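hiii so um. not sure if this is the right channel but i have a protein structure encoded as tokens and i wanna go backwards to a sequence. like what aa goes where. can anyone help
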């Protein structure tokens, strides 16, 4: 089974991060599959703040295999940016499952909840046009620290998650199933991020666990998530 991670800065990670992609790769590698799972995608780097570009290879674990670092994620990229490009990436790299974490950057800088929901539907249509049998797991937006003091932004996050759930319900098809993951109930912005937005080691594990739990409970893919390292 071939997996592609799709996301924004929380998914690509910056130089020195493990990333939740790494945690998910660990989980998938330890799970039972008829043949080893593959990670696919057009990119492999981390965001390098000094260069302001996704050029870093400085993962926290240098033993993270090069072929498992692949992804379709970008610092500052959201549904707005991924919707027009996902079809080409799917056609080229042929994933069976997309694991998607997008939306916070859209709501924070680019589009409101209604406009962002339109881009979700464009994304799904574009991905399916390239691979009609594609499966997708979508993670709702986890509001960042801005939502504590910006009530309109917080409301947009809530509204978008409602619209995302509706889109998943509307667009789910037996031949190309969509799944809405449950965000971690115990996600703590102070303990699980390093800046109120981007996940640290515990946040990475909780995001990976959200996807792993959805895959296992809904489709029997993989197994229960097993926490590794720091809590």
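sure thing!! here u go:
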């Amino acid at each position: 089974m071939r997996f592609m991670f799709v996301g924004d800065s929380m998914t690509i990670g910056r130089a020195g991060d493990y990333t939740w992609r790494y945690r998910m790769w660990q989980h998938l590698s330890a799970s039972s599959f008829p043949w080893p799972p593959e990670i696919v995608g057009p990119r492999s780097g981390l965001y390098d703040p000094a260069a302001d570009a996704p050029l870093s290879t400085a993962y926290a674990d240098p033993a993270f295999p090069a072929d498992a670092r692949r992804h379709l994620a970008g610092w500052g990229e959201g549904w707005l940016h991924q919707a027009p490009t996902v079809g080409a990436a799917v056609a080229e790299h042929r994933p069976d499952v997309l694991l998607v974490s997008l939306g916070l950057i859209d709501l924070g800088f680019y589009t409101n909840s209604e406009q962002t929901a339109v881009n979700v539907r464009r994304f799904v249509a574009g991905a399916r046009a390239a691979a009609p049998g594609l499966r997708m797991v979508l993670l709702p937006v986890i509001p960042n620290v801005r939502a504590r003091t910006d009530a309109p932004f917080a409301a947009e996050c809530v509204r978008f998650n409602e619209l995302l759930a509706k889109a998943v319900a509307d667009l789910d098809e037996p031949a190309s199933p969509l799944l809405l993951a449950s965000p971690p109930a115990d996600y703590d912005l102070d303990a699980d991020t390093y800046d109120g937005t981007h996940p640290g080691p515990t946040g990475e594990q909780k995001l990976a666990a959200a996807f792993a739990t959805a895959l296992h409970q809904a489709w029997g893919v993989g197994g229960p998530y097993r926490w590794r390292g720091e809590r």
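oh and The two ends are 29 Å apart (CA to CA).
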